[in-house]
Every structure is written in C-alpha cells, then in structure tokens.
Amino acid sequence: xxxxxxxxxxxxxxxxxxxxxxxxxxxxxxxxxxxxxxxxxxxxxxxxxxxxxxxxxxxxxxxxxxxxxxxxxxxxxxxxxxxxxxxxxxxxxxxxxxxxxxxxxxxxxxxxxxxxxxxxxxxxxxxxxxxxxxxxxxxxxxxxxxxxxxxxxxxxxxxxxxxxxxxxxxxxxxxxxxxxxxxxxxxxxxxxxxxxxxxxxxxxxxxxxxxxxxxxxxxxxxxxxxxxxxxxxxxxxxxxxxxx
Length: 244
Known about the structure:
20% strand, 9 helices
C-alpha cells in the first residue's frame, strides 16, 4: 500500500483517535477505502453546491472552505476543513451538497465512496462510532458559529474563531508553532464573520494591538494563544468528545 495512504502519521488518525480508541483492524479497514490522493490548487472547487455527492472527502493536507453563495455572488463561509477533517460523512442521507467545498490553499484529499462508507458502518462499528463522533463535533462547530455571530462583538468574534482554528489544528496532531500559522486572509474572515472588508481590517488591527496576533502576507499568525483566548473568553470544551 502506498505510504501516502497510510494513516499512522496523519491528522485523520489523530482526530479519530481523539473520539474512540481504534485498533489495527479499524485502521486497516479505513486505509483500504482510501483511493489515491488527489491534488487541487487554491480556489479550485472540489464540490459544487447542488451537486450529487458520490464520495466523502478527507483532507490530507491544506485547508478547504465550506460555503454558500447568493445570487449576487456574496459568499458566506460556513466552516473550514483542516487536515484530517471530512465532508460528506452522511452523504447517504443528504446526497446533494447544500454547500460548496473549495480549496482555500493548495490541498490534497482522499475520496471515499458512499458504498464504502455504508459498508464501513456495517462492518467496523468502532470506526463508524469515531466518524459519528466527528460528525457530531461538526454540529458543535456550527452551533458555536451561531453563538459567535449572535452574541459576540466584532473583536470577540475574530478572537474566538482564530482560537478555535488553532485548537482544531492541535487536535490534528499539528505542532503548536505550525498550528499558530493560519492561512486565512481578511477577506476570508469577513465572509466567515459577517463583517465588511473595511470593518474586518479595523478589527484585525485592534486585535493585533493586543499582542495576540500578528498579520502576515495571506495569513494570520497567532503570537500569544493565551492572550487570544482571554480576549474571546474562549473555552475549547465544545471541541472535545468523550470517546470509548
């Protein structure tokens, strides 16, 4: 089996093991389903909105966005997909994508067919449980986004989102120094947080002045995660599962 398909050192295994303890047979079952990795360039669309989904996606490297566009071309980013995260786990229930999946950076993904996923749920119960936990965690992310937009002021919204993304990187086994480098632009942040481009720029400047972050070219660098968490009154409890 190609080393590119091995899970022993990937973010996916870190994430799955964070929910349920998996054994050799579980890992082998999942590895057997992974096709050859496919590469996409930044801004390429992997899954158009409304398209029938025949495969779930697993991000091997890079970042993707899940978003919706309105008739005027305005974008709302629903969520980000980081290394080891999946889209389309329950494509058997919702075969048509309600959202667009696009590459935020250059990405490498694996595709798993709906038939293979259905077989997994019947033959590998611990792995199926881990995937279900992962899907439940995604629901928590959406709940947090609603709270973020409804209850927090602009600087708290931004700090909360950046802290969440940092901790999601850590959950994927990414080293702290690398996890602090978030490949997102102010335009991406505006489309996620429901702010104008001009206001997002002001909020980024205000957060930078706290010493929590420092802007870079096409990225945000977290300079002090503890300070960032204090600005947001952030708790990562919603990111943690209680696996078996």
